[in-house]
Task: structure prediction
Amino acid sequence: LQAISQIIRSEGPLALWSGLKPTLLGIVPYSGISFCVYGTLKDRLRKMEGLHSDGELRTVPRLAAGAAAGLVAQSVTYPLDVVRRRSQVYPDHYRDVLSSMRVIVEREGALALFKGLSMNWVKGPIAISISFAINDLLRSAAQ
Result:
């Protein structure tokens, strides 16, 4: 609570939500891309194995499709994570998404929008693959 009151006193109450806009802007494409890639890969794997329904697909191919989906979605939307983190740490320097991206690219080059992505490749695909596999398992159990 002390940190919150200090932020409000020094930067104003809106500082508590710095980074919210890029976070919300990143959720939609991340979810859309990951679900699209997962569904497409799962369908192709099912057809390659000659299966007739998703329920017949084994766990390992589901995990592989989920990991690939997470990897692609994370890679595409990662610049928004960079902007979000920077706007949270430096709210006066990074006010909106597009101008923040432009400033980062001008000062540090385009690769700066992907700083830290390799570490996310370690944890992200594992988490999303498990999430998709469990989601499929629960959906099939509910039917």
